[in-house]
Specification:
This protein is of the alpha/beta class. It folds into 2 domains: 169 residues, no CATH class; 349 residues, Type I PLP-dependent aspartate aminotransferase-like (Major domain) (Aspartate Aminotransferase, domain 2). It is built from 22 helices and 16 strands. The strands form 4 sheets. A 7-stranded mixed β-sheet has the order 2-10-9-8-7-3-4, with helices on both faces. The protein is globular, with a radius of gyration of 27 Å. It starts with 9 loop residues before the first helix and ends with a helix. 46% of the residues are buried. The structure holds pyridoxal-5'-phosphate (PLP). Pyridoxal-5'-phosphate binds next to helix 7.
Length: 656
C-alpha cells in the first residue's frame, strides 16, 4: 500500500466503531483510568489474607516469634518509618514511568497488564516459589510445564503428554534467552549423531559418515536419540554405564567447539541463517554459544520478509561449499515492522535440502507475534480457514500470513514472549520445541533412558527444570501468572484471540488514517506506510514536501520523534502521545521496494550516504486494548494523527 494522495479514499470511509464492542475485554485490564481498581484490590487483599491463613495454619502450635507488642518498640517504629519513607520515594519516582497503560502510548511493545496474570503474580510472590526444581516449587513447576503445553497447542504442536512425540516448552526471562535455548538445542541435536558414530556404537542404524550424521533432518536426529535410549534400556547395567560415558566423551558439549571440529575435520562450524530484520538477540546467541557472530548469515529480504529465492540461493551455496547450517530462523512479527516471514516456504526449503543432505533445524522467532496464532485456532485446536478469519477484518490475514501460521506445526521450535502480546509482567518469555524427546541432550547429566517400566511420566520428567534451562533459579510467580491467564483466556479465537483481533483492527484503522493523513497534508509533507504490516506494528515514513535529501528527511523525523519519546527531564504528563522510531534498511526492502518508497516520498536514493544509509521512520505498536474507545466514541488513533498533523505543520513552519 502506498498512501499517495491519488489513492483510494479508504481513510474517509473507515469507521473504527464498526466492530462490535467486546464487553469481556472491559474486565481484562486495570484500564487507562484504573477503573477496575476495586476488582484488583479485592483480589489482592483476598489472596494476601489467604496467604496469611496458610502461614498461620502451618504448625499453629508454634508460638509467636514476633511479640504482639513489638510494633510499639522505638526500633520497630523507626524501621517502619524508614521503609515507608523509601517506599514513598520510590512511588514518587515511579510516577516518571512510561504510561504503558494509556492509549496515548503507542511506542514500544508494552501495554496494560491482564488482570488475571497480574493478580496471580502478586498472589504467588509471598510464597516465592523457585522453578529451578520441584523441591523448591512443588506447584509452580507443574504450571510451567503446562504453560509449555498450552503454548504448544496454540502453535499447532502435539500437546498430549501421553504421545511419545509431545512438544515441550518452558519459560525464560524473555525472548532473548528463549532464542539462545533454541540455538543450544539445535546444536546439541546436530552434533549428537556425530558423537554416536565416534563412540563406535554399532547397531543403531547410524549415518555412514560425519557429514551425513551432522546433516540429519531434525526428525531423524530425534528418532536416533530415541533409538539410543531404547538401546541403552535393554543393555546390561554395566554396558549402559560404559557406553553412556563413551558417548558423553565424544559429545560437542563435552569436547567444546575447538576440539570437536579438530576431531571431525570434514565438518565446519555451522551457520545460522536469519533474515536482515531478525532481532539482535540472534547475534548475542551466536556469540554466547561460541559460534561467533560471523556465523550468523543474514538472509536477503523482499518487502521486509525473507525472500525464498535468495534463501534458496544461499542454501545451494552452503551445499556446494559443504558448509553446514545449524538453523534457519523465520520471524513471526518482526520487532520493528511486524512483518511475518514465509514460514511455509522456509519449512519447504528445509525438506528439500535435508533430502539432499543438508539438514538443519527451523526455528520461528515469534517473540512478538506468537499470540497472533490464537486468532487462527478454533476452541478444539483446529486451524481456522482464512476466509472465515478474514470476515472480521479488512484485509487481514493475507494468504501469506495464514500459510505461515498454518506451517508452524512443521517447525522444530518457537520463541514466544508472554510479556509482549501476552500482556503479562516481565520476565516471561517462552521456548517451545516440537518434540520433547531430545531435551535430554540439554541436561547436565544426560539421562536418555526413559523407556520400560521405570520411565517417568511426562510431568514427572520435567520437574527438574533447572537441569535443562539456561537459567537456574527462576520465578515461579511468573509461571503462575502465565498459566492462570491462559486458563482464564484459553489460546483460541473465542477467548484470548479477541485481544489480537482488536489490535489488528486498530492497525487496519491506523493504515486508513495514515492514507488520509498523507492526503490531507500533501501540501507540506509526503507520508506513507512503507509496506503493509502483517500484524499490529505500523511504521510511517515522512518527508517534507520538496525535499530530496535523505539526511534532511531523517533529521525531520528525528525531531518529530524527540517530541514523541520519553524524556526523563520532563513530566510524562506533558506529552500528548508516545511513539518509537526505527530505521528502514535498504537491504530489507529489495530494489523494487526501495524505488517505490523513495519515489512516493519524493526522495532521491542517491542521497543515501555513510551517515544516512537508512531511512528513519516513526514506529507504532498498536497493542493497547483501548485505542478505540467505544464508550466515548473516541479513536486515539485519530487523535494521534491530528496531533501529528499539527506538529508536522508547526515544525515545518518553524513555529514549534
Ligand atoms: C522482543 C523480541 C526478542 C527479544 O525478546 P526479549 O523478551 O526482549 O528478550 C526477540 N525476537 C523478537 C522478534 C522480538 O520481538
Amino acid at each position: 500500500m502506498a498512501a499517495t494522495p491519488s489513492e483510494s479514499d479508504q481513510g474517509d470511509r473507515h469507521d473504527p466503531f464498526d466492530a462490535p464492542r467486546q464487553h469481556m475485554l472491559d474486565a481484562c485490564f486495570l484500564g487507562p483510568y484504573a477503573q477496575n481498581d476495586t476488582l484488583l484490590e479485592k483480589l489482592v487483599v483476598e489472596f494476601l489474607r489467604d496467604h496469611v491463613y496458610w502461614r498461620r495454619n502451618f504448625h499453629p502450635e508454634d508460638p509467636l516469634a514476633i511479640s504482639t507488642t513489638a510494633a510499639l518498640h522505638p526500633d520497630y517504629l523507626a524501621f517502619e518509618a524508614k521503609t515507608r519513607r523509601e517506599l514513598h520515594l520510590l512511588s514518587a519516582a515511579l510516577k516518571k514511568s512510561v504510561p504503558f497503560h494509556s492509549p496515548r502510548y503507542i511506542g514500544h511493545m508494552a501495554s496494560d497488564l491482564l488482570l488475571p496474570g497480574l493478580a496471580a503474580q502478586i498472589l504467588t510472590l509471598p510464597y516465592n516459589p523457585n522453578n529451578v526444581t520441584e523441591d523448591t516449587a512443588p506447584v509452580t513447576v507443574d504450571l510451567e510445564v503446562k504453560v509449555g503445553l498450552q503454548l504448544a497447542r496454540m502453535l499447532g504442536y502435539a500437546n498430549d503428554p501421553s504421545r511419545p512425540d509431545c512438544a515441550f516448552g518452558h519459560l525464560t526471562s524473555g525472548g532473548t534467552v528463549a532464542n539462545y535455548q533454541a540455538l543450544r538445542l539445535a546444536l546439541a541435536q546436530k552434533a549428537f549423531p556425530v558423537a554416536l558414530r565416534a563412540a563406535g556404537i554399532g547397531d543403531l542404524g547410524l549415518p555412514e559418515d560425519d557429514w551425513a550424521a551432522f546433516n540429519l533432518h531434525p526428525r531423524e536426529a530425534t528418532a536416533l536419540v530415541d533409538r539410543w535410549g531404547r538401546w541403552l534400556a535393554q543393555a546390561s547395567h554395566s554396558d549402559r554405564r560404559r557406553w553412556q560415558a563413551r558417548v558423553e566423551g565424544e559429545r560437542l558439549e563435552q569436547r567444546g567447539l575447538v576440539d570437536f571440529f579438530a576431531v571431525h575435520p570434514t565438518l565446519k562450524v555451522p551457520k545460522v541463517l536469519a533474515p536482515v530484520t531478525a532481532h539482535y538477540s540472534w547475534s548475542k546467541g551466536c556469540k554466547l554459544l561460541g559460534l561467533g557472530r560471523g556465523q550468523l548469515e543474514r538472509l536477503t529480504e523482499r518487502g521486509m520478509r525473507i525472500d525464498p529465492e535468495a534463501m534458496e540461493a544461499t542454501l545451494e551455496r552452503c551445499l556446494r561449499e559443504r558448509q553446514p547450517v545449524l538453523m534457519a530462523v523465520a520471524v513471526l512479527g518482526t520487532t520493528e515492522y511486524g512483518t511475518v516471514d514465509p514460514i511455509d516456504a522456509v519449512v519447504a526449503a528445509r525438506e528439500r535440502f535435508a533430502a539432499r543432505g543438508l539438514g538443519y533445524a527451523v526455528h520461528v522467532d515469534a517473540a512478538w507475534g506468537g499470540y497472533l496464532a490464537t486468532l487462527f485456532r478454533n476452541e478444539d485446536g483446529s486451524l481456522r480457514p482464512r476466509d472465515e478469519i478474514a470476515r472480521d477484518f479488512e484485509s487481514f490475514p493475507s494468504p501469506g500470513v495464514h500459510a505461515a501460521i498454518a506451517a508452524l506445526g512443521e517447525t522444530d521450535s518457537v520463541t514466544v514472549d508472554p510479556h509482549k502480546l501476552g500482556y503479562l509482567p516481565y520476565g516471561a518469555g517462552a521456548f517451545v520445541c516440537r518434540d520433547h524427546r531430545t531435551t535430554a541432550l540439554l541436561t547436565e547429566a544426560a539421562d536418555y533412558v526413559f523407556h520400560g517400566e521405570a520411565a517417568p511420566d511426562y510431568m514427572t520428567r520435567y520437574r527438574r527444570l533447572g537441569q535443562l534451562i539456561p537459567e537456574g533459579s527462576k520465578s515461579g510467580a511468573a509461571a503462575a501468572a502465565v498459566y492462570v491467564t491462559h486458563r482464564v483466556l484459553p489460546l483460541d479465537q473465542a477467548h484470548f484471540g479477541r485481544l489480537p483481533a482488536q489490535t489488528v483492527r486498530a492497525a487496519e484503522h491506523f493504515r486508513a488514517r495514515a492514507q488520509r493523513f498523507a492526503r490531507d497534508n500533501a501540501d507540506v509533507v509526503h507520508a506513507l506506510m512503507p509496506f503493509d504490516p502483517d500484524s499490529n506494528l505500523a511504521c510511517l515514513a515522512l518527508n517534507p514536501a520538496g525535499n530530496r535529501s535523505v539526511a534532511v528527511a531523517n533529521a525531520f523525523v528525528r525531531r518529530l520523534h524527540d517530541e514523541l519519546r520519553i524524556d526523563p527531564r520532563h513530566p510524562v504528563q506533558d506529552k500528548q502521545f508516545f511513539a518509537s522510531a526505527t530505521t528502514l534498511k535498504p537491504e530489507a526492502l529489495g530494489e523494487e521496494g526501495l524505488r517505490r518508497i523513495f519515489a512516493t516520498l519524493g526522495l532521491d536514493s542517491a542521497t543515501l550516504d555513510e551517515d544516512n544509509d537508512k531511512l528513519v521512520l516513526l514506529r507504532h505498536t498498536l497493542m493497547n486494548p483501548y485505542l478505540i474507545d467505544h464508550e466515548n466514541g473516541i479513536s486515539y488513533i485519530d487523535l494521534y494523527f491530528d496531533h501529528l498533523a499539527l506538529r508536522v505543520r508547526a515544525l515545518l513552519a518553524g513555529t514549534s
